[in-house]
Amino acid sequence: MSFSMLTLVTALGWVGAVAGLVAYGMVTRGRWSPSSLPFQVANMCGATLMFLVAAVNGVWPSAAANAAWMLIGSQALVAIARARREARDAAGDRPAAAAVDLAA
Q1: Nearest-CA neighbor of 69 among 77, 57, 58, 79?
Q2: How far apart are CA 94 and CA 86, in angstroms?
Q3: Would the N or C end of the chain have less CB density within 10 A of its end CB?
Q4: pTM as predicted
Q5: Domain coordinates of the chain in residue numbers?
Q6: In Å, what is the CA distance from 51 to each residue of 20, 45, 55, 84?
């Protein structure tokens, strides 16, 4: 791997580490919920980028841990998407307000 590619991968790893720390900090301070979309997206981005760095550098225990983190995050994102879709569908099933008969 060329020096510039290694530098890029390392920089992405730092971005991933910051994303994970920001996510944890926001939940700890009560600004985000652990089940919120911003928290889960930040966690997934962080885990994905740190997985990339670990895999490129052959640090397999860290790569495996981040792969597991990515799997857990993926499941959380699917659950959030399903809940939002169900809420949207339920809102569409509600009876509309009584129609006003303008002809009367």
Answers
A1: 77
A2: 13
A3: C
A4: 0.79
A5: 3-85
A6: 12, 10, 6, 28
95 vs 58: CA distance, rounded Å: 58
SS (H, E, C) 14-81: HHHHHHHHHHHHHHHCCCCCCCCHHHHHHHHHHHHHHHHHHHHCCCHHHHHHHHHHHHHHHHHHHHHH
Type of residue at 96? A
Q: What is the pLDDT of residues 1-56, one digit of tens each?
A: 667 898 999 999 999 999 999 999 999 999 999 999 999 999 999 999 999 999 99
Phi, psi of 5 (to 5 degrees): -70, -40
